[in-house]
Design brief:
alpha+beta; two-stranded antiparallel ribbon; 96 residues
Length: 96
């Protein structure tokens, strides 16, 4: 039976690998999207000007979250994620 440390390490490497794959897929999709626009000749499309970017994030320093967001929905989602991470932190802290 594997120890908890090796299981957590394996999960960490898996999450890191998945993140790298997602970044590479995003870059590839961006290149493909730009290529299809260049073929059509509509680089300055009107719908790009209408687009609105929303986002939020959580920075955890130990069990203390720092939450930020661009609008109310993104902020509430970031708070929910922060609470979930805090609960996980406490579960692992009490389990060890």
């Amino acid at each position: 039976m594997e120890s908890w440390a090796s299981t957590i390490t394996s999960i960490g490497f898996l999450i890191f690998f998945i993140g790298i794959v997602l970044i590479l897929m995003g870059m590839l999709l961006n290149i493909v999207k730009r290529g299809s626009r260049a073929k059509r000749g509509d680089e300055n499309e009107k719908e790009d000007e209408k687009g609105r970017v929303r986002g939020g994030g959580v920075v955890l320093i130990g069990p203390i979250p720092i939450v930020f967001g661009t609008d109310r929905k993104a902020l509430l989602l970031a708070v929910a994620v922060a609470l979930a991470f805090m609960v996980l932190y406490l579960v692992f802290l009490l389990a060890s």
